[in-house]
Amino acid sequence: MKNEPTFRQDARVIGLVGLAHGTSHFYHLILAALFPWLKPAFDLSYSQLGLLMTVFFVVSGVGQACAGFVVDRVGARRVLFFGVGMLGVSALVLSVAGSYAALMAGALLAGIGNSIFHPADYTLLNQRVSRERLAHGFSVHGISGNLGWAASPLFMTTVAALASWRTALALAALLPFAVLAVLVLNRHVLRPNPPQHAGAQQAGEGTLAFLRLPSVWMCFAFFFLTAVSLGGIQAFSSIGLEQLYGISRELATSSYTAYMLASAAGMVVGGFVGAGSGSHDRNIAIAFAIAAALALVLGMAVVPGWLALPLMALIGFCSGVAGPSRDLMIRAAAPKNATGRVYGVVYSGLDTGLSVGPLIFGAVMDAGHPGWLFAGIALFQALAIGTAVGVGGSTRAVALKNV
After folding, report:
1. Which of 160, 209, 334, 336 counts the most CB atoms within 10 A of its CB?
2. Cβ atoms within 10 Å of 7's Cβ, excluding its own
3. pLDDT (tens digit per residue) in 261-306
4. Distance CA 43, CA 178 (A)
5. Which DSSP symbol is given to 189?
């Protein structure tokens, strides 16, 4: 019993991992938040701006799949420290960029830093947090990410408006370096389990054996589809709401912030829903069905402009409720001793989708169809439901077979 993690120990691990995760999500949007300044500064189209996001997420997605293997080999803590530090370096490079190519280079460095978080974070949570608090750990992890998403546009646009976009990026570089200092000071709390070596694996359980599991690829597809939808929300929802409803930039930005904050609140609720249910795929299906319907209503512009903010908040809340059930669904699909690899490959679907989303929806915005933006968001959320149900059915079938 002495080796069982206490509530205080679990809380420290969850808090530290959440702090790092929030930082990574803050960096997802440091460029997207500055699109109104970068567009005239470099004379760029929306598609070119979207390509910056694509570079970030393509590099992150490829790196994430690789990072999972590194995490399982050298331990999650070292990998986490590297990623946090690399984010700070990327912001410094972006702050002095003098050309579109330099912006691309900064986006690439940020993608490298971002690539490590999901395999490192989820490995630490699974290793260091007790089973009875794991659903709530996943909930806090998701909440911290959403708070990072919510804080980034507010911080970046405020500083850019008061000073300049370069100043905003330079100040953003302070965050990961401060977080890295906190993590290093508390490194004993994040001690990883000894790496699993090939000799310790059971016969037939090679390093790449998990790739033969259909549930792993259905999880990848689920993340890809939801991320395409999220990419549209992150990059263009504020601009789309301005054009569709004729509302102010401040209200449109606040609507996006409301989406993220409500999503964080939904994850609190989702932690209890996930902990008290074994049907994680059904929880996800219900939440995403409601979110997709609301996004479709928003895109049809059949409501007054003042309802844009509460509708965005409701979409965010429903998406947030699904978050902890999503992570528990993946945990159930992952073989033992392959946590880093599974989360790395599965979450690379998130980055792949986030790389594709801005390109698709950037072209939609260039064509002058902001309503299609929200219709597309609804479509990809609806498609994701089928993959979640497929993962749940596959996992339950395996569980019954092993009884």
Report:
1. 334
2. 10
3. 898 899 889 888 877 766 788 889 999 999 999 999 999 999 999 9
4. 34
5. G
Which of the pair, 196 or 37, is modelled with greater confidence?
37
Tokens of 52: 């910056």
Give the 3-state secondary structure of the chain: CCCCCCHHHHHHHHHHHHHHHHHHHHHHCCCHHHHHHHHHHHCCCHHHHHHHHHHHHHHHHHHHHHHHHHHHHHCHHHHHHHHHHHHHHHHHHHHCCCCHHHHHHHHHHHHHHHCCHHHHHHHHHHHHCCHHHHHHHHHHHHHHHHHHHHHHHHHHHHHHHHCCHHHHHHHHCHHHHHHHHHHHHCHHHHCCCCCCCHHHCCCCCCCCHHHHCHHHHHHHHHHHHHHHHHHHHHHHHHHHHHHHHCCCHHHHHHHHHHHHHHHHHHHHHHHHHHHCCCCHHHHHHHHHHHHHHHHHHHHHCCCCHHHHHHHHHHHHHHHHHHHHHHHHHHHHHCCCCCHHHHHHHHHHHHHHHHHHHHHHHHHHHHCCCHHHHHHHHHHHHHHHHHHHHHHHHHHHHHHHHCC
Query: How far is it, in rounded angstroms, from Cα 159 to Cα 171?
Result: 9
How high does pLDDT run on average in the chain? Answer: 86
Helix (H) or strand (E) holding 68: helix 46-74
Q: What is the pLDDT of residue 293?
A: 96
- Encode 68-99: b = buried (16+ Cβ within 10 Å), e = exposed: bbbbbeebbbbbbbbbbbbbbbbbebbbebee
Are the beta carbons of 350 and 304 closer than 8 angstroms? no
Task: Locate 324 and state its tokens.
Answer: 């902890």
pTM of the model: 0.75
Q: Looking at the chain, how many residues does it have?
A: 403
- Any idea what DSSP says for residue 199? G
* Residues 39-76: tens digit of each pLDDT: 999 999 888 888 898 899 889 888 888 888 888 888 88
Q: What CA–CA distances, in Å, run from 348 to 115, 225, 380?
A: 8, 12, 17
Q: Which tens digit of pLDDT belongs to each residue from 111-121?
A: 999 999 988 99
The predicted pLDDT at position 202 comes to: 43
| Joined tokens for residue 47 | 């598609």
Q: Which of 16-20, 140-144, 361-365 has the highest mean pLDDT?
A: 16-20
